[in-house]
Amino acid sequence: MHMTHVVIYVSDVKDSLAFYSMLLGLKVNFSRFENEDVASVQAGGIDIILHHDRDLPAEERAPRGRSIFIEFGVENVDEEFDRLRGKALIVREPVTMSFGLRQGYIADPDGFLICLSSAE
Q1: What are phi and psi of 110, to 5 degrees?
Q2: What is the mean pLDDT of residues 1-11?
Q3: Residues 57-69: what's their mean pLDDT?
Q4: 11, 42, 57, 77 - which has most CB atoms within 10 Å?
């Protein structure tokens, strides 16, 4: 078994696409905004599908972002946070974890947590 993709239901696909591609620098696979709002970015061989949540029942749309997070490994988490400061909502500044990684959290436009980490 292997993971092929992750789907994130978002309230605004264009905003989310800008966040993941322009701010985080992920490669855009595709975007379609005519008949459906959907886009795809790629991180480390895994596709992240950004799909509009308008077709979900209201009870499935909230709460957002606190039960799962996406983690991206970066060269230097402190430098990455310096770059993102003022551009992204910083949830938790980087700290060194007991298992040796330095991790910090930001939130995407819908409040989903994004963990950025690097080796100490």
Answers
A1: -100, 5
A2: 86
A3: 69
A4: 77
